[in-house]
Amino acid sequence: MTVRDDIHGQIVGGLKGAKFPINTPEELLAAFPAGADTTCRSGDLAVTAGEAGKLLTAADFPFKDAKHVADTIVDRAGL
Predict the structure, then answer these.
(1) Which terminus of the chain, N or C, has less C-beta within 10 A?
(2) DSSP E strands: which ranges in 1-79?
(3) Which residues 6+ apart lie within 8 Å of 28 measured at CB?
């Protein structure tokens, strides 16, 4: 499994119980189990939801599902 796949899967898993659509950055952070402190890890890479959220812009919202969130974050992070 690649780092990209690993982080993508963790983001999708972290948003498993989230209610979509998610319309704002605040709603997105609140949807993660530990909020902005939710951490995804793969090998030596660790990124929090708060850090990942800095890769997003207002134009990215609303998100329609967890895969859309994960796709956007891993693409912007260059993973």
Answers:
(1) N
(2) 39-42, 45-48
(3) 22, 49, 53, 56, 61, 63, 69
Q: Which of 34, 18, 37 is nearest to 70 (CA)?
A: 18
Find tokens 């902005």 and name the residue: 36
Distance from the first to the final alpha carbon of the chain? 12
Q: Do 14 and 38 touch, CB atoms closer than 8 A?
A: yes
Q: pLDDT of 5-50, one tens digit each?
A: 999 999 999 999 999 999 999 999 999 999 999 999 999 999 999 9
pLDDT in tens, 46-78: 999 999 999 999 999 999 999 999 999 999 999
Task: Please choose, from the candidates 36, 24, 27, the residue with its C-alpha nearest in 3D space to the C-alpha of residue 62.
Answer: 24
